[in-house]
């Protein structure tokens, strides 16, 4: 028997269509939260991620929503919570519970639903607060969470590099255009803070590593290099593998100085890491600020010029295009066509 306030089949179908229309992870998460807020009686919904390369015990808030016109308003969800707290203080619902549709009925209840990612590993937790939990809401959330997880797996398959699990070149094209559009609109708003930067990295002498130790060890270097990237940069930063030994980061920092400090910290982390069999590996990098009105090809070319300068002048260093122009180390050159990374 369906409750009187149950969503009708048309609304459910439209919600599923809306969820599966999304083409990137952030939009998919936002759509899931908006859908559950609309279809259930939840007072607050918070999606927490377990960041790749993080400490493995801290959940980071990804998306959050509360019921509209709620009196009194629910307190805002904390930005970070310990994984142990989510498992201890909320009813941790395993997938078998979701499949069986078991619910906890109480005057007020908070339930943590596990979000399962690649390799059947826990990738996050969906925390839902109810004034009173119904079997209908519980089953609905379980069903939409499974749809979300299945579609997330399809997105990862199409948007991520198979070897390193970083984002791929196709996804970069979508993300850089999105950031450029945001930067263009930011010119019409006041109070926008932060600096967007495109950084290109190239592992020094990678061909020599492959020739000396074989492609198996070369692939291990790429995997470990990607792991150092995820551990060094923030969860909000976008990390890509372009192919071969070429990697890219799109990051936002408070200012240029903090950006360069982050890139230098990454360079040092790579330099200090003892790669199995291979030993020390170094990286060269070049970066450029992202401003509205620019073209992706121009930005890549400028960052690549800074990268080439790093390699030409001793490798194992990172330079910013704008700084090199100011210092007279590079000349402003308009270049069209494809860009080769060295």
UniProtKB/TrEMBL annotation:
Give the enzyme class. transferase
**CDD domains hit by this protein:** GGDEF (cd01949)
**GO biological process, any:** cell adhesion involved in single-species biofilm formation
Q: What is its EC number?
A: 2.7.7.65
GO MF annotations in UniProt? diguanylate cyclase activity
> In what residue span(s) does the GGDEF domain sit?
194-323
What's one Pfam family the UniProt record gives for this protein? GGDEF
Question: What cofactor is needed?
Answer: Mg(2+)
Any Gene Ontology CC annotation: plasma membrane
PROSITE patterns xref list:
GGDEF (PS50887)
Task: Output the PANTHER family linked to this UniProt entry.
Answer: DIGUANYLATE CYCLASE DGCM-RELATED, REGULATORY COMPONENTS OF SENSORY TRANSDUCTION SYSTEM
The name on file for this protein is: diguanylate cyclase
Source organism per entry reads Methylogaea oryzae
């Amino acid at each position: 028997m369906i409750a009187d306030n149950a969503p009708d089949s048309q609304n459910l179908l439209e919600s599923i269509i809306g969820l599966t229309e999304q083409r990137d992870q952030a939009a998919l998460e936002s759509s899931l939260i908006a859908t559950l807020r609309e279809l259930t009686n939840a007072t607050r919904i918070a999606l927490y991620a377990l960041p790749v390369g993080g400490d493995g015990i801290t959940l980071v808030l990804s998306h959050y929503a509360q019921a509209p016109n709620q009196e009194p308003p629910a307190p805002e969800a904390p930005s970070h919570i310990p994984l142990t707290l989510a498992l201890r203080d909320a009813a941790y619902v395993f997938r078998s519970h979701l499949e069986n549709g078991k619910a906890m009925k109480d005057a007020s209840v908070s339930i943590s639903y596990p979000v399962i990612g690649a390799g059947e590993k826990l990738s996050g937790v969906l925390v839902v607060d109810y004034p009173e939990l119904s079997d209908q809401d519980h089953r609905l959330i379980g069903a939409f969470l499974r749809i979300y997880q299945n579609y997330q797996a399809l997105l990862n398959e199409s948007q991520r590099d198979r070897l390193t699990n970083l984002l791929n070149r196709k996804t970069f094209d979508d993300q850089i255009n999105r950031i450029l559009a945001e930067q263009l609109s930011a010119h019409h708003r006041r109070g926008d803070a932060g600096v967007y930067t495109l950084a290109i990295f190239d592992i020094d002498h990678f061909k020599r590593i492959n020739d000396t130790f074989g492609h198996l060890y070369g692939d291990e270097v790429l995997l470990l290099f990607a792991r150092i990237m995820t551990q060094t940069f923030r969860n909000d930063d976008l990390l890509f593998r372009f192919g071969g030994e070429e990697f890219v980061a799109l990051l936002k920092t408070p200012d240029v100085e903090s950006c360069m400090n982050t890139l230098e910290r990454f360079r040092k982390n790579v330099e200090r890491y003892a790669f199995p069999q291979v030993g020390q590996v170094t990286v060269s990098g070049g970066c450029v600020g992202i401003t509205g009105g620019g073209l992706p090809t121009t930005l890549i070319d400028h960052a690549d010029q800074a990268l080439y300068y790093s390699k030409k002048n001793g490798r194992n260093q990172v330079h910013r295009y704008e700084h090199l122009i100011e210092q007279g180390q590079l000349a402003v050159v308009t270049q069209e066509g494809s860009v080769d990374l060295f």
